[in-house]
Automatic annotation (TrEMBL):
GO terms for cellular component: cytoplasm. Gene3D superfamilies: YggU-like. HAMAP family: UPF0235. This is UPF0235 protein ASILVAE211_01505. It comes from Acidisoma silvae. SMART domains: DUF167. Belongs to the UPF0235 family. SUPFAM superfamilies: YggU-like.
């Protein structure tokens, strides 16, 4: 049995993370890894914040920073500012960040 593909990969100076954001959710949390519209894996994250004036993007960065124990300034949106599908860049020790992401997804049952 092969392991499912992960929505994150090592990149120069950090990690690239594919996310599908569900704003105005009933709770903050992750749904685990789901298949994106292009067939690639994405980490689906639900947030209470509405998609208005960047509120959901700010909440996404704050949520990831809190869950991964990182500074908000180390997380940036590379593409998808106004879309549900986003590519994020997390600056730092790539292998350590990937280990945190894998643990987080595993604990969430995703």
């Amino acid at each position: 049995m092969t392991e499912p593909a992960m929505p994150f990969a090592l990149d120069k100076d950090g990690v690239r993370l594919a996310v599908r954001l569900v704003p105005r959710a009933s709770r903050n949390g992750i749904d685990g890894i789901v298949q994106g519209t292009d067939g690639r894996p994405v980490l689906q994250i639900r947030l209470l914040a509405p998609p208005v004036e960047g509120a959901a993007n700010k909440a996404l960065i704050a949520y990831l920073a809190e869950m991964l124990h990182l500074r908000k300034g180390s997380i940036s949106i590379r593409s998808g500012e106004t879309a549900r599908f986003k590519i994020l860049f997390i600056e730092g020790d790539g292998p350590a960040i990937i280990a945190k992401l894998e643990h987080w997804v595993a604990c969430a049952g995703g």
